[in-house]
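Lab notebook page, bench 4
Experiment: in silico fold of construct C2
Operator: M.H.
Input chain length: 158 residues
Purpose: comparison with the prior construct
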Amino acid sequence: MKKLFLLAVLAITFASCKSTSATNTKVDNKTERLMKGNWVISSVSYPGSEYIKVTSFQLADSKCFVGSTWKFVSNNNKGDMALTNANCAGFSSPITWFVNKEGQFVLKVLSAGEKAKKVRDGYVLNVANQTETSFQLVDKIDVGGKMTDVVYQFEKVN
């Protein structure tokens, strides 16, 4: 019975991240300035990660984000990100982002040449444990009726 349950859990895929509708847009400049620069995601963790697959940002398995590179420009809230994990399909995109006064990181992944105002969907994650050299973005997903944290650990590159 236990093995059957684990096999059923393995087949479940969860999409992470929430829409940006009804999100506070007042910017936290201090938090944004600490994020300025180049970053890499050093880990993605969540309870049950050995059994549950999470698709992050509707792009790829969360494990594909380990090693991804992110550039945040704080004065215009633009940047870019690239999936570079050798075990996953490559992907890169310009982004727009901001951190609001509630400690929420709001992200839009753009297609080349696309304006942010034309992109209706975005993602809202919480900023946690921020220092000058690291921070976490925390997403909440529903796993079997229980809210679970997905933690993206960022480390400063330069």
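Observations: The first helix runs from residue 2 to 10. The CA atoms of residues 77 and 115 lie 13 Å apart.
Next step: discuss at group meeting.
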